[in-house]
Task: structure prediction
Amino acid sequence: MSITDLDADARVRANDRGHVFHSWSAQALIDPLPVAGGEGATFWDYAGNRYLDFSSQLVNLNLGHQHPDLVAAIQRQAGELATIQPAMANDVRGELARRIVEVAPAGMSKVFFTNGGADANENAVRMARLVTGKRKVLAMYRSYHGNTSTAITLTGDPRRWANEPADASVVHFFGPYAYRSAFHSSSEEEETARALEHLEQTIILEGASTIGAIILETVVGTNGVLVPPPGYLPGVRALCDKYGIVYIADEVMVGFGRIGEWFAVEAFDVTPDLITFAKGVNSGYVPLGGVVISDAIAAHFDTVAFPGGLTYSGHPLACAPGVATFEVFERDGILERVRDLGARVVEPRLRAMAERHPSVGEVRGRGLFWAIELVRDRETREPLVPFNATGPAAAPMTAFAAACKKAGLWPFTHFNRVHVAPPLVIGEEDLVRGLDIIDEALTVADEAMS
Result:
């Protein structure tokens, strides 16, 4: 329950502005919201304002704020064994690893735990390079893989620019994006074929003998909720097999139920060599990530030491809510409800919005992971705001977000898009209410088209 406490608000603001250095921000130009608490799909500030969390914070709070089962698991584990080094065996670490591989594709039976998604991708790339003896990695434009040195180089969005050079052995290529096709495709079939042809040409021109891995977000997250067209991911798998390249699936954002599958690759009939995860594995209650490893790659390290490790790898306080997450998913039918709500509630509502609002160029997604792409002109598909817009250039999106917040919804906006990614436990009534708020706020985007 939210309670007004303006003294606490002032204290939190003062401490934050005086001493906290925030990520991805010009420090003097931000005003972070002091959050007092949360429950389920809602959080509130000290002034008593309540917000539907339509971004699941950073698309990690899959089971919502303060889920009692996850909180209890952490409390219970803290009372039994608060921490232990990763070189020792631990009950909850082993149990979580067992549960993860049971829902992973066949032929993947080992898990390397990390602190989060970036270091999961770092270590997956390290494994691929060691196993293949090849250093180069291919990654998509319009991607995000983390903020550590190789991960930020893999990233195909503007967050990479200021961090260059980092890992000189990364090459970017265009992935499928039918709405703004780099290949001038007129259908999903053409987009798949041409994107795969482009990728194969990149492999040939870069030298297959130099390429250790291709890393892909199974569904591109922050950079557009780009669902791969039919046949694309199996085509990538085939190219990796043809040229002796390790296929890394980055599921940091879409793993653990976001699109209604334990791992999103299951929806696209493909088995990668490595799967990276974080976020939804325990809803971010305690930092945790990892790499699910194919048996072939794991076997390479049976008698050869893996040269990597982390002090907090598989931390018991992080693994305990991970085990609880599996129990909640199975007991409450989370995967089934995500598929149901996505198909029955979200998709039809978003498609109806696209019909009503001239600023909506396209809606796309799956499960409880959708994007609304906003444009100035439906015919030309000119984005509502320029690529990587900031300040006055981003004003239409800023105004849209402000309208959502004023109505009690915290949106996820990125460039010219609105993403719909509420906690997987959101009630249907709240989900509909949140979509209603977005629907109304889109009138602001419509007005900005002129």
Remarks:
- The chain has two domains: 6-66+333-449, 69-332.
- The longest strand covers residues 369-377.
- The longest helix spans residues 334-356.
